[in-house]
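Trying the structure run again after the queue cleared.
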Amino acid sequence: MDAVIRTERLTLRPFVEDDADALFDIFRRPDVARWSGTGEPMTERDQAVQRIGRFPTRAGDHPATGIWAVVDDDTDVCRGQLMLVPLPPSTGVDRADIEVGWHLHPDVWGRGYASEAATALVERGFAAGFEELYAVTDPDNVRSQAVCRRLGMTDLGLHTEWYDQELRAFRLSR
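Done. Tokens:
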């Protein structure tokens, strides 16, 4: 499958180390970091470099999966990250699901970038043969939940099957 994906306004491409400044700028912000991983903002650029280095492992080995830089075609600036990746099951849970997810810079919130980019990854996932895609959000992350609904995903309520925590889960079937 193509490594680069184009939408009407965006280019989704693999991250390179030169994207570390943009990624750091995104995840140093508490209003972004609170919805990701530990919830703690990045404090040093090197954390972004390390995260980029872990992307290939996190993406898994399926040719359709990956983690992409979301680049605004008008400015050629990395505005966020988008992923189609294996969804880590919680301890003791035997599942093998695929997650679509996004983290964008607050400067572009409300412009429809998450929905536009995620739609492209949903299409990629279904074209690759995945029967279902999931998104999981913090129970309080109403902005991401709204994106899930715009994608046509079904709200499954609160679940603990992934990431060893209680999350609001959404599913979209092919």
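Residues 5-173 form a domain with the Aminopeptidase fold (CATH 3.40.630.30). Worth checking whether this holds up in the mutant runs.
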